[in-house]
Design brief:
Two copies of one chain form a homodimer. Chain A has four domains: about 1-60, no CATH class; about 90-125 and about 320-400 and about 515-565, FAD/NAD(P)-binding domain (3-Layer(bba) Sandwich); about 130-190 and about 310-320 and about 405-500, Alpha-Beta Complex (Polyamine Oxidase, Chain A, domain 2); about 205-295, de novo design (two linked rop proteins) (Up-down Bundle). The first copy, chain A, is about 35% helix and about 20% strand. In chain A, helix 13 (about 390-400) crosses helix 18.
């Protein structure tokens, strides 16, 4: 068991080192729980029941039983917690009105607690945040941006997409009436771009994907026909394998991937089929495998296949902050805004938190409660005086926070749609901007549009852009982006740039766990320490995801409630 | 050249025979122009310019020049036609108020023609059609269904999705203010189902896809390492190939595809990562390659990659008929509804069309014009008296129409989302229903929902279902669907079934070209015959697609106008 865990850890490190930096919008967002081995299932009795059904009726019946027991889901989430038992007037002070804090406020009040929330910002949501025209964005270093976006257009500087398997977040959206729409992660017609390949010309994802997959299939079909796979595969499977390679790779009758209307049906045409006498289709010439290999564009082909970025992804209609606003409709009455926490004290009977009003920082105020749920990012919390045990203190001090920079650019027209038929999705590049993401709202509409002109994470580029002024960042994003979309220069109007290491309420975009750090500190970070318990994405196996914040909060309040009821 | 064409034709036939029936929602929809070889480009001068720029400045500059010339698009569509020249009061009678007919009406009236339209139905749109609660669906054979769907829910019995490269249709949507939303074709969490594999239990697309791709990559990596590819690939490429296979196949350091957190990041987990102390992720066990091969589930894996079904696809918000209604807002004043054409006569000076009011079929009426654009499906037109030359007459008689059956089912709740986290997309099965498609609207909402419970096309099953009464079709779809979703039985409420061979205004879903048929008849079908020219999806290289209808219409009116102006 321990050996397996060590192996997994080493494996993960290798994978992250080699593959992930090339592949993912944000490595830490892609899974984040790889450091822990197999845990025991807490559901042995139900499992036995299912095994019994399976034995009696065959596995199809078992599947049906699983489904009807609501069991096919791989998530531990089973709806909002049932906090049975009377808290007998207990009070809870929650620090931070992000999704973790507001989830706790919502559920604890429902269970009978007295709840108050202290929030640094003048709005709820925390990193659940949308920037619109008229908004002011303040960063450390004296940078203040006044957003000039046209009304109805926006950018989500923090979380911007929701996977279908984030069951808790989706359930809260359902219960709080947040309307969702698809977020387009994969767009076959978006670009892959490498500065040193194809003379810098961006390539359509569809062509590179079809050509790569087709030529790999051709190679494998060739060795299969040559009998070179005979140890690895039975004679019966050999024939089916060849059939499958023809379908999978768009190969011709001779198992070759060529310029013809078979490959064109996947990679696209030099000339599309049309109507009347105007257009019979014309296939294009595939890109040679060697060229694709050397371009390294294959590094981006699997991004959309990751469990975290698979279809169907969502975004709230109108901006990600619709979720924060929906929570605030429920619990806004117990939130005190503009409250900057300066000190957290506890003793055997309760918690006392000192804070100042951000508009009047000299007058220290105090809030007290029986219990405290602290969702303050560790980047901030590690700088505060807090009464906790050494293991928790060490955990708080140990976690670094990732940097990330997002830049929203407004253009006079949606040229990516009008000129290039790119509707949503992401173009990937090895330029410092890393990716250009096209909006998943307002499709096919005339008029202005905003795209995400850069999303930098980790590495030197993120630090470099963080060091720039916001207007320098925007100007750089326009310069680099113009290498992919020449229309940039003529169409650009205004931009907003957020460098998360400079954002006063988080000083980073998310907790950045290493395997070693998690092994040493994670469980300590989760423990109820006297009368204080932590929650937030940093206290989860889903760092940087809103689902992690909510699940960590639900886990924390369930354990806290158990203690309160037993006390 | 001729040889190449013959080869392409043979190739296509083989591809269609072997691969396509398993792969595609509707084979004829997937491309449909494969029978024709390479045509000459009509844009030689621009090409020369580009070549010049390319020579001088390198291909990156050439790409930029192409983009700024609006030239990167592979479509022939360049905006609505500019019909220069005065038609001097010429009149045009258009038969059929589908998208082809209404496009012609819109553009010809704008160009100065007198336009009238005769339409069989009591609504515009034709196959651009949405069925809602309260609608009546009439089929040949005496079948009348009264749709019982809840208000706000609908099914599109005809076209239901719009590819991003259908430039003309998208342009009309933009100009006519039809709001679009994404249509989800690929959902990684939907199912693949084979009755004789996995004891009938449906498999998640994500797992089969990751396991198939991973194990193919492992096989190819193995022979690469063993030096068995040395003829096919250089030593330098060999190392990059191995790197690419590791990324593409989610292989471990030893180039193996195994149960670990690397493969789980693509195929999904036995247990998802969670928050706090609740859930460290647990990988699941991959399905062996041999099992996947024998299940034939690989047949469905590429459907979403086809150019015609690639992201980003669209549907109009509120139903496909929003497009027909938008056209009708423009040209509805010249449409005469409930007009059944019975005869089409022409002489040197004009066209006379006889028709009856469908409510009063005994009184024959006549409409006359200088010219006629006939969009009546050939399945109907071949039964009418029409004055045309023998080649056109033969073409009209030669084209068979495809059958297709679509069945919409309303359920008490959206169990596919609530229980199974399937939001939009398609599950494929070898059951007669062929596919279940989940709605791409109303995501994550409580309450009732409608899914497409069957989409049968060609083959024995389509005929079998066409022969049934509508209520038998619905009952069968529920029976078969329950083998994939056991919730069907308890949740089903009401359904609607449309068998296109029985639909009075088309007698089939679309023109079904063969290579031989197209070679013999297509050009004849396109020709202006005296004062009559045909338009519609059947007069295009995009049969069954709305884009084909519009492009054929634009081509026909451009040629007609040229003749009118020159006359």
């Amino acid at each position: 068991m321990h050996q397996k865990r060590v192996w997994l850890r080493a494996e993960r490190r290798r994978f992250l080192d080699r593959v992930v930096p090339n592949l993912f919008p944000h490595p830490r967002m892609m899974n984040c729980g790889w450091d822990r081995g197999v845990q025991n299932e807490p559901v042995v009795k139900r499992r036995d029941l299912l095994a019994l059904i399976g034995t009696i009726a065959g596995s199809s019946a078992m599947y049906h039983a699983m489904t009807s027991l609501g069991f096919a889901s791989e998530s531990a989430y089973r709806g909002p917690p049932r906090l049975a038992g009377d808290p007998r007037g207990a009070s809870v002070l929650i620090l931070g009105a992000g999704l973790a804090g507001m989830t706790a406020a919502l559920e604890l009040r429902k269970a009978g607690y007295k709840v108050q929330v202290l929030e640094f910002n003048n709005r709820a949501g925390g990193r659940n945040w949308t920037i619109r025209g008229g908004d002011t964005v303040v960063e450390l270093g004296g940078f203040t941006q006044k957003c000039q976006f046209e009304q109805g257009l926006y950018i989500n500087p923090g979380p911007w997409r929701i996977p279908y398997h984030h069951h808790a977040l989706l359930d809260y959206c359902r219960r709080l009436n947040v309307t969702l729409e698809p977020f387009i992660q994969l767009n076959h017609n978006a670009y892959l771009h490498a500065t040193r390949a194809f003379d810098g010309a961006p390539q359509r994802i569809r062509s590179i994907k079809a050509d790569f997959q087709g030529q790999l299939s051709e190679l494998l079909a060739k060795v299969t026909q040559q009998g070179k796979l005979d140890e690895a595969i039975t004679k019966e499977d050999r024939e089916i394998l060849l059939q499958s390679l023809r379908a999978w790779g768009a190969l011709d009758r001779d198992y070759r991937y060529n310029a013809n209307l078979i490959s064109a049906a996947f990679r696209g045409y030099a000339r599309d089929p049309g109507g009347g006498l105007t257009a019979a289709p014309v296939p294009g010439e595939p890109v040679a495998l060697s060229e694709i290999l050397r371009s390294r564009l294959w590094r981006y082909l699997q991004a959309f296949s990751l469990y975290n970025f698979q279809t169907t992804m969502f975004q709230p209609v109108g901006g990600m902050d619709m979720i924060g606003k929906a929570f605030a409709r429920e619990v806004g009455d117990v939130i005190r805004y503009n409250a900057k926490v300066t000190q957290i004290r506890q003793n055997g009977s309760g918690v006392t938190v000192s804070y100042v009003d951000t508009a009047n920082p000299s007058a220290v105020q105090q809030a007290t409660a029986d219990w405290c749920i602290c969702t303050i990012p560790l980047s901030i919390l590690s700088q505060l005086a807090i009464d906790v045990s050494a293991p928790l203190r060490n955990a708080i001090d140990a976690l670094p926070y990732a940097g990330a920079v997002k830049i929203g650019l407004q253009f006079k027209r949606r040229f990516w749609e009008e000129d290039e038929a790119i509707y949503g999705g992401i173009s990937f590049t090895d330029l410092p901007i890393r990716q250009i993401s096209y909006p998943s709202y307002g499709f096919n509409r005339a008029g202005r549009g905003i795209l995400l002109g850069a999303y930098l994470f980790e590495g030197a580029n993120a630090y470099e852009f963080t060091a720039m002024t916001p207007s320098e960042r925007v100007a750089s994003a326009v310069e680099f982006g113009a290498m992919i979309h020449p229309q940039y220069k003529a169409e650009f109007e205004t931009g907003v740039a957020v460098a998360w290491h400079r954002v006063p309420f988080t000083l980073g975009c998310s907790g950045e766990w290493t395997d070693a750090g998690r092994a040493q500190h994670y469980r300590n970070l989760c423990q109820i320490d006297g009368r204080i318990v932590l929650a937030g994405e940093h206290v989860s196996h889903l760092p940087a995801w809103q689902e992690g914040a909510i699940l960590s909060s639900l886990d924390a309040i369930a354990r806290l409630h158990e203690r309160v009821v037993k006390t």
